[in-house]
Design goal:
CATH superfamily of the largest domain: Diaminopimelate Epimerase, Chain A, domain 1
CATH topology of the largest domain: Diaminopimelate Epimerase, Chain A, domain 1
Helix content: 10-25%
Radius of gyration: 18 Å
Shape: globular
CATH architecture of the largest domain: Roll
Order of helices and strands: EEHEEEHEEEEHEEHHEEEHEEEE
Largest sheet: 18 strands, mixed
CATH class of the largest domain: Alpha Beta
Strand content: 35-45%
């Protein structure tokens, strides 16, 4: 079975967020235990599996995402990587609809090679700073926000330097995430003046097997409305300042967020052990 590793939200290899992509030949899911084993073997933030749907369905492909330890409800970078794989195969040149645990997600490939993801907006609401969060991050945020169904916590800091300097205690963050029932902690701040992006972020999800995610599309469904509301503009650019870095262009459209980026295939191989 063919498997690819594709770097998402970047225009160069070995940057952005790598995702493994398996485009399945059949019209149903293989054994779930096997998919989990493949994701653990890949040991990337997410491995995406997709299979085609009949023409009568309300989507074109079914799509699922697995971290090395759990299945997740929404993943931006692995969705972008899946569209890139389909485009590379000549399967699509325009819109693709995916049936997922977060409903039908519409994506579109543009003529300049960028890929847009149409995802549900995650509304933010300010909450008290959870006990132990500042200690786990080794820095105190100015404010913390819930993100609704996204189930992340958004921790806002005053400047870009504070985000770049974060050195979390991942064991403490994992314990806090489980206690609070959250998937990840998103740390964010405004960009330093003069940059070609508007805000920065980092995303920590040790409770689901990802100490730090390099570039997190789903996190931008909360980052986009927060920063658009604060900066007064619907169209923004966010830089995730992990070691690999990645750029996500965001646009708020009512209760939806459009996330746009590029992708690069870095490995194209054969998975020798398939589901029996």
């Amino acid at each position: 079975m063919r498997i690819r590793i594709i770097d998402a939200f970047t225009d160069r290899p070995f940057a952005g967020n790598p995702a493994a992509v398996c485009l399945l030949d059949g019209d149903s899911w293989p054994d779930e235990c096997w998919m989990r084993q493949v994701a653990a073997e890949m040991n990337l933030s997410e491995t995406a599996f997709a299979h085609p749907l009949p023409e009568t369905a309300d989507a074109d492909w079914a799509l699922r995402w697995f971290t090395p330890t759990v299945e997740v409800d929404l993943c931006g970078h692995a969705t972008l990587a899946t569209v890139h794989a389909l485009r590379s195969d000549g399967t699509t040149t325009g819109a693709v609809r995916f049936s997922s645990r977060s409903g039908v997600l519409i994506t579109r490939t543009h003529g300049d090679g960028t890929i847009m993801l149409d995802f549900p907006l995650a509304p933010t609401a300010q909450v008290s700073i959870p006990e132990g969060l500042s200690d786990a991050l080794n820095a105190k945020p100015d404010a913390v926000y819930s993100t609704g169904a996204l189930s992340d916590l958004l921790a806002v800091f005053s400047d870009e330097a504070a985000i770049r300097a974060l050195a979390p205690d991942f064991a403490a963050l994992s314990h806090l995430s489980r206690r609070e029932g959250v998937r990840a902690i998103i740390a964010t701040a405004p960009a330093e003046p003069g940059n070609d992006y508007d805000f920065v972020s980092r995303c920590f999800a040790p409770a689901v097997g990802i100490p730090e995610d390099p570039v997190t599309g789903s996190a931008h469904t909360a980052l986009a409305p927060y920063w658009s509301g604060r900066l007064g503009r619907d169209n923004l650019a966010g830089m995730q300042v992990s070691a690999r870095t990645g750029l996500v262009h965001t646009a708020v459209h009512g209760d939806r967020v459009h996330l746009t980026g590029r992708a690069v295939t870095v490995l194209d191989g054969t998975l020798l052990h398939t589901a029996g």
